[in-house]
Design brief:
Number of strands: 8
Low-confidence stretches: none
Oligomer: single chain
Strand content: 35-45%
Largest sheet: 8 strands, mixed
Mean pLDDT: 96
Strand order of the largest sheet: 1-2-3-4-5-6-8-7
Distance between the termini: 22 Å
Length: 166
């Protein structure tokens, strides 16, 4: 299955993505805000491909097929999807995350018939908050010590979209 808009394609990861994943995810800025380990090794990538518990997509450039980032949707409770995403350094500032988030959100709410899609961003992760807002998400509030990143409990700002928000 693949999802797309005019600029990005969300498609399943393949073994051919491993070198690009390792190169992109060896970026401290990504591990700073996510649960992705640093340094990121080929074994991390292989384990990710083997044992995914979420619907995960490679975010690629529609024209070139180049890996730009990743986005995943997991179901923490019935009818609710939780989204996480990252964009490689060279692709930041081009609207890649906003496009990918919009595409997966529409699919989750319309095709998968979820009643809610949510995401959390740390208060200091202004870029991720902007992505959520540009993709039509509503800021709901601060969840204290909600996130566990690298064994450290951190605050998270909850955002959501509902079917009626589309």
């Amino acid at each position: 299955m693949k999802l797309e808009d005019d600029e990005v394609v969300l498609r399943p990861y393949t073994d051919e993505d491993i070198p690009a994943l390792v190169a992109a995810l060896n970026d401290r800025e990504i591990s700073r805000w996510t649960r992705i380990p640093f340094p990121y090794t080929e074994e991390h990538a292989r384990e990710f491909l083997r044992s995914r518990t979420e619907t995960a997509f490679a975010v690629t450039d529609k024209r070139s097929g180049e890996l730009l980032g990743g986005i995943g949707l997991r179901l923490p409770t019935e009818g609710v999807g939780e989204v996480g995403y990252w964009v490689r350094r060279e692709a930041r500032g081009r609207g890649v995350a906003t496009r990918a988030l919009s595409v997966i959100t529409r699919w989750a709410l319309e095709d998968q018939r979820l009643v809610r899609v949510q995401l959390t961003a740390e208060p200091g992760n202004v870029a991720s908050q902007r992505v959520a807002e540009k993709a039509g998400y509503t800021r709901e509030g601060l969840l204290r010590r909600f996130l566990n990143i690298g064994g450290e409990r951190r605050d998270g700002i909850m955002y959501s979209r509902l079917p009626e928000d589309l």
